[in-house]
Predict the structure.
Amino acid sequence: MQGKNELGDVRIVDLDADSEFRFEVDFKAQVQIKLLKGTAEIFGTELATGVDYTFSGRKAAVYTWHEYTANETPMSSYLNTHLAIQQLRTLARSSNELGPRVLVIGPHDVGKTSLCKIMASYAFRQGEKPLYVSLDTAEGSITMPGAVTATAISHLIDIEEGFGSSATTAASMGSTTMPLAYYYGYESPSENVKMYNLVVSRLASTANSRLAADADSRASGIIIDTPGLIDQVGYELIWHAVQEFSVNVVVVLGHERLYSDMMKKYKDQAGITVVKLNKSGGVVERDKQFRTQLQRTKIKEYFYGTPKCELSPYSMLVNFNDINIWRVGEVIAPSSALPIGMENMDSETKLVKVDSFDMCLHSVMAILDADDSEDEGNLLNSSVVGFIYISDVNDEKKKMTILSPSPGRLPRRHVLMGAFKWMET
Ligand SMILES: Nc1ncnc2c1ncn2[C@@H]1O[C@H](COP(=O)(O)OP(=O)(O)OP(=O)(O)O)[C@@H](O)[C@H]1O
């Protein structure tokens, strides 16, 4: 395998069987990797021989199988887990039932997203079309940070861009393959647990009914990536996701206590299997700065596309009167912080209309799939048709400038604002 940085320095690396070449590239730097001979994969997607793959702002590993030798990486256990899940799919197909619903949990930075990608890629390579669900609002791996999403894996996950080129750009182009998304609007679920659980429930219910109606994907089931929360709030979120998606396989990655707590909780529940897998030594911790940078990159990608598929967003003027901007009411104290029995009633999920447009400047907002006349109490039940960015606000003229991936009028007038801001650079 050959690696080349932007200064033109070339390195050739010989990869033994069952070993990984791990690399980290800064956002400002670029490296190219080329497979010269043999077979290798990145998070489950195979590399083609002789093709230059370019990476920037990424931490990843090139893995090679050949045959089993040492057990230095947990890849063989990931493969075995996939094979067991694959059997459940075959079984489901023969009885025309819903395939496995797999939930991957664990603390931050243990490789949950990577494992989900690996399992989705392996499933796809075996002809399956599982639904990939991301409940990780910090990451925005499929559309935007702040959203929970579901998308059918109908083509290979891109080596260089992850879901970037497949889902984000499809979404920006208003394609019908726009992933199903609901907008929560904050990075961490603990900021507003009630609202987070509400959007997860909505996503689960729509995803379940889509799957029930899609004979092609039904037996392939669902793979669910989660945020890395394992404190008291985290457990609540896990129980909730298990229930809403009728999860029957819980994969615990890299955390003994979490595993034994899950075993305790589910040992008497027929039909739920709890599996423990080790964290890969290659998983890298990402500091706050790297995560923020990753979020900015995701937001930018939504509007401007990726190096492989560039987009030019449209800038348009919108009258204050032509748009209804909503945000969730002031959360005085999250319910989780109040004494048992006392609830913050509905302020955590009650929308208030934003009338000070100044506060919208540089915000990312979700356009809700709701009719103009929709009751405000129902808006949070709406999925997302796309995202916009407010690049300028002119109070005098009562207009604002909006950046949108598609031309023409706003498709809907109700938009939901969260906490994500971004500065075009
Ligand atoms: N085997 C590996 N070699 C090198 N890098 C890896 C490997 N596995 C994962 N990584 C990288 O480590 C980082 C963390 O992995 P990942 O996003 O899968 O963890 P996570 O548990 O989903 O994180 P979180 O949920 O906290 O965001 C990512 O940048 C990923 O690309």
About this structure: DSSP finds eight helices and 24 strands in the chain.
